[in-house]
Structure formats: structure tokens, C-alpha cells
Amino acid sequence: MLRDHIEKILPLTDEEFSFVQTFFTTRKYKKHQYLIQEGDEVKNCYLVISGLLKLVYNDDNDKDHIVSFAMEDWWESDYYAFYTQSQATMSLTCIEDTEVYCFSFENYKKLCAALPKMERFFLQKSTFGFLAAQRRILSLLTSNAKERYEQLLKQHPSLLQRVPKSLLAKYLGVSRETLSRLV
Amino acid sequence: MLRDHIEKILPLTDEEFSFVQTFFTTRKYKKHQYLIQEGDEVKNCYLVISGLLKLVYNDDNDKDHIVSFAMEDWWESDYYAFYTQSQATMSLTCIEDTEVYCFSFENYKKLCAALPKMERFFLQKSTFGFLAAQRRILSLLTSNAKERYEQLLKQHPSLLQRVPKSLLAKYLGVSRETLSRLV
């Protein structure tokens, strides 16, 4: 899975892939388990092999907001904490039993130094992440909850089938009751 | 300015910088002038040398939303259209007389192929862009207009002094009247 995932962007020789692989470890988590808890030092980002994650921000009024979901083939972390090697301000937990590749910040730097062509892979991932984030900003600025629901349904129909409505409401920024009226 | 800007992230030899420089051109625009108009083919992204830009999305109800501002040392474009080489869905215009470096998508690809270490520079820029976008998403999800104004004031005090209140309202997603009550 890792090789396919990388080679969608960057072809690797067998030797290169064997080398790249040594920078990744796999780990299994159960439903409801935390990969990152608010306040943790964030050592890893994660590539989902199977399962489903939610990245949650708990605000000053103790209200949960879902920043993003991550399913198979998606990367996730508290990226600000990951890149700045600071404490997590968000939590990352399992909506389903989940298996991930773990990739540490230290390994990120080591791999880029040892095999600079991997920077092209991360550049493309980062660019697409930025474009998706900008699309979400536009959606929050210009659309109401019903329109945001419809956009999500269009972009990721399979995701919507797996996400409980209570969590979907926290992603769309509406109450569970409002969501019920919309869908 | 270009050399300082790049070398904040990536040291270059004199030869390397001379080479990099050939991929950039400069251009001056007057206040109110368009760098990108909705519907245009987006050939360039821009690095602001002096001046101030706004990136605007005009929604289905003909309402303007300001996606971002860009001042000295900031990059801007309709990035989705730039990276996918598709038509602009946003417009980029001058709030002040502005001078920019123009960097075409063609040159972006050529420069990365010819001098792969530049991918490290773009990777870091892209990563920071993603983190800023994610911060804005969180701010839109969790904060009201008054809090968003205060966050912006804290992050970019010099920007706020240069942006007319009518445009600031379109960035914060409130009416001009609501903004007047807040600030």
C-alpha cells in the first residue's frame, strides 16, 4: 500500500522503496483510542492503511469542532504541532478500528536529506493539502450548512456513509438537530 | 529581495541564485488593477515586492468574499487554478500600487527539475501555507467576528493598518456595520 501510495506521485526503484520503507512503522488502534491527545508532544504524522480518524479541536467553551476526517490513503496529524515540534492543541482519535503508518518528524527530516527526491512527493502532498484547506475556507465563508453537506457528499460520498451524524454535525459546524433537518 | 526571501529557508550559491533569478520577472500594477480576473487562465503566482493585494471570491449571489490578503514577502495566486492549470475562480487585485515577482507554472516545473533543492524551499512555503489555512479554518469554526478580528490584529498588526474597513469586513465575513460595532 505504501509503495502504491508514493508511486502515484513519484516513481521509485526497488532499492529506493526498500530504503524509504525503513522510515515507516505500522500500528493498530482500536475504535475510540487516541493517536494524539491535546497537550501531547506530537512525534508522528500518520498515513491511514485502514479505518477512519477524526481530528478534533476543543475550544475555550469546551465545545468540540471536527477539523477533518481521515480515511484510507489520507495523511493526518496535528500538523502545526508536528512541524513546529510543539504540544498538540488538537486530538486525533479513531472512529473505527484503524491501522496506520507512523512517520516521525525526525524520520521526515532524515528521509528528505538522504533521498531528496522524496521532497517532490511531500511537496505535492502539501500542495494538495493546502488546496483542500483553501476549498474548506471558501466553503465556510460562502456556504450554509446544507450546501456544505452537499459539497461533502459530492466530494467524498464513501466518507459520509461511515461518519456518524453526530460527528458530521461537528464537522459542518451545526447542531445535531439542525443536521437532521438538512439531510 | 528575492535572494533574501529564498535564503531565509534555503542557502544558495551566487551561481545558483543567478540561475534561479532567470525564472522570475517583475511587473508593476496600479491600485485597483487586476493580476488575475475570474475566468482567466492562471499562468503565474506572484511574490509581492511592495504593495498589497486581495484575493476575492465572488459567490453565486454576487457577494464578494476576501479569501486572503498578500503584502510584502507573501506569495499569492488562485492556487487551485495555478496548480491545475485551469481557469481562475477567484480574482487577484491591487489594494495599493503593487510590484511583484511573476513566477509561471512552466518555470516552477522547469526550476524544480533543473535545481531540485528548490523543492525544499517550495515544500516549506507550501507547508506554512497549509498551516496558515488550517488556522483560518479553526478560526472560522470556533471564533466569532470580534475574536477573528483580534486574532488578525495580533498576527498581522501592520496589515490591519493598511486594509480599508470595508475590505476587512469582507475578509471577516461580517457586514461593514457589524465591523464598526466591533472595532
UniProtKB/TrEMBL annotation, chains A, B:
Domain Cyclic nucleotide-binding span(s) in chain numbering: 12-111
Q: Where are the transmembrane segments?
A: none
Q: Which organism is it from?
A: Chitinophaga sancti
Do you know which Pfam families this protein is assigned to? Answer: cNMP_binding (PF00027)
**UniProt xrefs under InterPro entries:** cNMP-bd_dom, cNMP-bd_dom_sf, RmlC-like_jellyroll
Domain of life of the source = Bacteria
The protein's name in its UniProt record: Crp/Fnr family transcriptional regulator
